[in-house]
Amino acid sequence: PRGSRPFGVVEAPDGARFATGQGTGALYAVSPDGALSVAAEEPDLRGLAWSGGIVYATRHRSPDHAGILLT
Fold this sequence. Notes:
By secondary structure, the chain is mainly β. Helices cover 0% and strands 49% of the residues. The protein is globular, with a radius of gyration of 14 Å.
């Protein structure tokens, strides 16, 4: 959808595809026939992985340290 800023995309063995929308906070599912649905909603979804029938999504959250290395 417009403004979703897609980032991560993964394809399941059955041909279904999943994509994250940074702008919407949605995990989109696209069925093999092209139907689009929202599978989940979480802020800052980014990368995706598929393993054993499960879609794993990462979230990007950096601390507000302006790039300072903390030791």
